[in-house]
Every structure is written in structure tokens, then in C-alpha cells.
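call fold(seq) -> C-alpha cells
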Amino acid sequence: MMEEKEVSHLLGECRTMAENCLYTAQAHYVIAQRESWKRWVLLVLPALLAALAGALVACGLPPWIGIIGAVLGGFSALAAALGVDKDAVLHANAGHVLTSLRHEARQLHESFWKEMTHDELYSEVRRLADRYCNIRLALPPTDNSAFEEAREKIHKGRFKPDFKSRRNEGG
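ret:
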């Protein structure tokens, strides 16, 4: 069985990856949340108003209301075709991918390494590091304000498991 001292550099790399993934994933989630208004304002609301206008015309109100409904429906269709909610979806997916990678790195440095040989651990850490670099190349960029907002959330302790804080309190 390996001693933790022998592989501390590999475990440290896993911790670094997990932390980097946490911060970057949360920044992506912040951006996704910011961008989600477009879905409601440019897609959902015009479609609902178009449906309402059609229902009002069907109930006997003046036909010009149907024209407004048609314009709103066309606007909603154009917004959907142009993918106005694309950025929100891309950033949410980026957050999910990085969260998954974060958990892999965390599992490796907290638990799985104890059952591995040095060579197996090295290979796993190397695989995760390569995967992390490749994933980061494929993701959309974040911005400083999203990173700072994510950093504030993280520093509030929101991402620390309850069982760990209870264990440290002696419970």
C-alpha cells in the first residue's frame, strides 16, 4: 500500500483540478443564469401572447388582435430559429461537464487512490489532467464578473458537504 507522502503531488494535482472545475463550473452557471432571461422574454412570452391573441380572436374579438398574435408568433419563431437561448444552454452544459470532472478528481484524491498502485494513480491523474485541458479548450469563455460572483458563493461554504463539517465538529 502506498503512503500518502509518496503520492502527495498527484493527489494535490487532483485537488487543484477539482477546485479549478468548481470555480469555472460555477462561473458558467452564473452566465447561464444571466442569459436565461432571453428564453423567457424573446421566446416564451411572445409565444404565450400570440396564443392569447389567437384565443381572443376565436372568442369573437376584432381580427386585428390576430395580426398582433401573428407578429408575436413570427417573432418567437425567428428568435427560436436564431437560437437566442443558445448561450444559456452552452454555459449550463459547460457547468455540468466541469462538475462531473470535479467529482471524478475529488473521488480520486479522497478515496480511490488508496486502492491503486503508483503507476495506476499516475495514469488516472494524467488522464484527468488531459481531459481537463481538452474540455477547457472546447468550452465557451467565462468573464471576470461571473467568476467573482461564483467565488463569493463558494467562499460562503455552499459547496462543502454537511457530513464533513459535522465530522470536524466531533459529531
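The two ends are 30 Å apart (CA to CA).
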